[in-house]
Structure formats: C-alpha cells, structure tokens
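Lab manual, section 2.4: Encoding a predicted structure.

Procedure: take the sequence of the chain (441 residues), apply the prediction step described in section 2.3, and record the output as structure tokens. A sample record is shown.
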Amino acid sequence: MQIRIILLTLLSLGGMSVSGHAQQTMSLNDAIQYALANSPDIKVAQLQVSDADWQIKENTATALPQFSGSIAYQYFIQRPGIPASALGFPGTGDEKIAFSALHSLTPTLSYNQLFFSNSYRVAKKAAWYYRALVDQQLVATKRTVYNRVADAYLPALLISDNLATLDKNIGNLDKLLSDTRAINQAGFAEQLDVDRLDLSLSSLRSERGNLVRQREIVVAALKLAMGMPVGQEVVLSDDVQKLMATYTDADLTSDLNLMNRPDYIALLKSRDLSALQIELNSKPWMPSFAGFLQYSPGFQGGFGDDSKWFFIPSAVAGVSINFTIWDGGISKARRQRALIGVQTLDTQKQMLENAIALEVETGRKQYLNAQERVASQQRNLDLAQRIYDTTQTKYKAGVGSSFEVTQAEQGLYTAQQNVMQARYDLLSARITIRKALGLDK
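Recorded output:
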C-alpha cells in the first residue's frame, strides 16, 4: 500500500528524542511558519549570510591603512669590538673599542597600505558575489523546508481521514453485531453469524490500532521536519478536503519560468563566482602597489664606562611595486582549471533545466491521472455503499447471510480507502506542480 512507502520514507529522516511540552493545534500553514522560524537548516543558512557580510568587511579592510607597533630591548652580554691599538691609539694595550652600546631599546610605529592589487580587486568582487550566492541559498533552503513540511504533513492527514472513516465503520459494525447477538439469543440467527461479525469487528479494531501508531510515527517525522521537539504534542487541524480548496486547480498551461526556482538561481550565482577565478588568473602580470612609513624613536646606552642613554630616532618611508615576470605556468594551469569548473557548472545547469522541465511535465500528467482516479474511485465507492446498504437490508430481513454482510463491509472499506488515497494523490499532484513551477501556495 502506498501509505506504507510514505511511512518508510518519513522514518528515514532520522532519530528522535522525547520531551514534554504543551499541546499545539497546527494547520499546514502553521507548521510551515513554525519550520521557517525554527528549522536548523535555515538557521545555518542565515549564519552563512552573516559570515558573508563579515567576509566583505574583511576583504575591504585589506586595502585600508594598517597601523602596528612593536618594542624591543637588547642587552649585549658580549659586545663586538676590536683592540684600540689596531686603530692607531697608542698606549691602549689590550683595551677594546665596542661597536655597540650595552643596552638598546627600540620602539617602532609602522604604517602600511595596499594601494592596488589585482588579487585584492577580484577578491573584493568575489566577496560580494558570495554574499549574493548565500542569499539565494537561504531562499532555496527556505523553499526546501517549506516543501519538506508539506510532504510530511499530508501523509498524517491521510491516516487521520482513514481513522475517521474506520471509526465510522467500527460503529456501524458494532451496532450490527449487537443486533445480531440479540437475534441469536432469540433463536432467529446462527452463532456463526455472530462469530463472523465479531471477527470482522476485531479485525477493524486491530487495523485502527495499527493506524494510530502509524500516525504517531508520521507526526513525529513531521515535527522533525519542522525543527520541533518530538515530544511536543501537536494536533493537526487541516484535512484533505480543506487543503484541496486551499490549493486550487493545478496550473496545466502556463510556461515554466526557471527564475522562480531558487535552486536554479543559486546555480547561476555559483557560476558567476567560479568565473571570477578565470578573471583572477588571466592577468598574472598586473602589479601590486603598496606604501609604508616607519618611525622608530630608539634609545641606546652603556658605551664603555658611561651609563648615559642616547636618543637615536629614525624614520623611513617607501613604496613597493611587485609584479610577476614568469610564474612557471601556474597561472595558466589555474585559469584552465577555472574554465573547466565553469564548463562543469554549465553542464549542471543544462541538467537542472531538463530535470525541472521533466518535473513539471510529470507533475501535470500525475495530476490528470489523479483526477481520473478520483472520479473512478468515487463511482466505485457509491456502488460499494449501495451493495453494503442492500446487503444489510437483506440480512435484517432474514434473507441474507452475515458472510455477505462482512464481504460487503470489506468492499466498502476498501472503496473508502481508495477514494481517500485518490484524493490524497490529487492534492499531492497539485502541490507537486506548484513546487516544480517554483510557486508558493
């Protein structure tokens, strides 16, 4: 049965933890809004946007004035020097003349600034491109969460509708069993009739228990998709019929606009970002131009037997120009790799365009098929209901058997399930088309 496949898919979402919370009643729209505010995937995407903002600031700051300071102290345990006699000083004997002071204290203030660099120019542009990419990834993530919650919400509704119909059938069969027992006690019905009805009622109750447990599993998977604690009590307030009215007839005629698909736009942004690598490695000869200024108010002391300190300041300014003459082919190799990366993204773009077109076409065909199945299954349900009503009338009149009643009841239940499944498929097809077209509800 299709519902079991849906359950297995939802169970693959992952493990679940339990905690106690107050009960909440949620429509599909409530569930979507909760997910958009609490989904961990969206929170991670928002953090990436914030990180991109800081990356822009980091790259911009690279070319702003950079100030730094340092301070160094040196003490010469053994100072270099030569004998004074070697310099022509008579009568000095072994006395040496030192080439440095005993103490040296050197504070330094530095200013550096990058005036131009092709790498910096491309990196600054890449930071803005990356910001646009993560913006679009955030939109795509929100759309993914939106679709994931809708896909998880609908199976829970299908099970709830099955439970409501099953409860109605259990009530009808329970009344029939009670009447049959009374007739049996009066001697106008066989015990076999009572046993058959009892067995059928027991089977329905067992099926109901199974559906209740399945609904708990599906609702837990829905809460996981929403980013809600699995222990939170939730009551789903929508039903298939209500959502059928909310999601109007699927659009079977309008053209596909790929720019409505966030995943497609994100791929285009990623291509723009990759193309910058080509630009970066196409002009390796472009120079970088920087300037610097350094001031050092140095102090030195301890010349010979004199302990006096001397102020020895220095200042220097300059510029530097750096350029590549030959890099051994590194830039060419990087440029070719960047070209391959862009060509790969172009191929992926074509594949995505075809996949989206197929998704729209498949959704529209599934919608037409679901429309036909709803009409067909509704006719079958009307027929099964007439058979069930006639069989009950005959049985109560004493001209039918309980076997015919249980068979008619099973046929009616199957027809009811088929109608609900067909309506669910029709609703799913409507939502699938809107997802494929990139349209909101």
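Check your result against the sample. Confidence is low (pLDDT under 50) at residues 1-20.
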